[in-house]
Amino acid sequence: MSESTELDPEDRKIITLARSARARNAVPEGAAVRDETGRTYVAATVDLASLKLSALQTAVAMAVASGATSLEAAAVVSDAEAASDADRSAVRDLGGPDTPVLLAAPDGTLRATVSAG
């Protein structure tokens, strides 16, 4: 699945939200996750002297802090070609190994869908 027109509308939504977070904050990555109830959590890269989190790690942390117990899907918008092991681990910790991670280019084009596992 590499064509953006093939995306489920809910998956397109989290890519759009992730893309917006990246652009709004002028950071390397934007991310969004959807929990088991359909709520979405949107985040950008955190790069402080004492705390560094990828956008996807931040989005997962926001979901956990808000009471989410599972994830349906995750999306990250970045120049990177692949999700890091740390990002996939964060998604797997909350969503399980089969949770899809959508990897999108800065223009929102879906590059790949990988499992968190």
Task: Briefly say what this structure is.
The protein has helices at 9-25, 55-65, 85-95; strands spanning 30-35, 40-44, 46-47, 52-53, 71-77, 100-104, 110-115.
Q: Unreliable segments (pLDDT under 50, ≥5 consecutive)?
A: 1-5
Order of helices and strands: HEEEEHEHEE
Structural class: alpha+beta
Q: Note the overall shape.
A: globular
Major sheet attributes: 5 strands, mixed
Question: Helix segment count?
Answer: 3
- What is the strand arrangement across the widest sheet? 2-1-5-6-7
CATH architecture: 3-Layer(aba) Sandwich
Instruction: Kindly state the percentage of residues in helix.
Output: 25-40%
CATH topology: Cytidine Deaminase, domain 2
Give an overview in words:
The radius of gyration is 13 Å and the shape is globular. It is 33% helix and 28% strand. It has a 5-stranded mixed β-sheet. It has a two-stranded antiparallel sheet with strand order 3-4. It has a single domain (4-115), classed as Cytidine Deaminase, domain 2 (3-Layer(aba) Sandwich), CATH 3.40.140. Mean pLDDT is 94; it is low at 1-5. By secondary structure, it is of the alpha+beta class. The protein is built from 3 helices and 7 strands; from the N terminus they run αββββαβαββ. α2 (55-65) packs parallel to α3 (85-95).
Walk me through the topology:
Layout: H1 9-25, E1 30-35, E2 40-44, E3 46-47, E4 52-53, H2 55-65, E5 71-77, H3 85-95, E6 100-104, E7 110-115
Helix pairs in contact: 2-3
